[in-house]
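S1.2 Input.
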Amino acid sequence: MSNAARWIFAISLILFAIGADVFAFRGGGISTIGCQEIPPDWVYYILVWAVVVNFSAGILPALMLIRKADSRRVVTTLVFGLVLACITYSAYLYLLGENC
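S1.3 Output.
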């Protein structure tokens, strides 16, 4: 992969990470509207953790691309990060449903 293509793909991953974080944070906040009672504060800490994991899932592969890491490592990091981000956001929604 050429250097310009690496930079373009890395910038696209960073923009995707920012967009996904905004979606996750606002979606998590909007999902509390239907609650009959106020959820405990620790449920929101799970949301913050999910946003951090989501952001790092997009940033780490981008940094690896810029530093010219092996393609297999970049793809593995991206897939693992996305799976971990989905698990943490699903855990937030589950805990919100149980405590809402």
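S1.4 Remarks. The radius of gyration is 16 Å.
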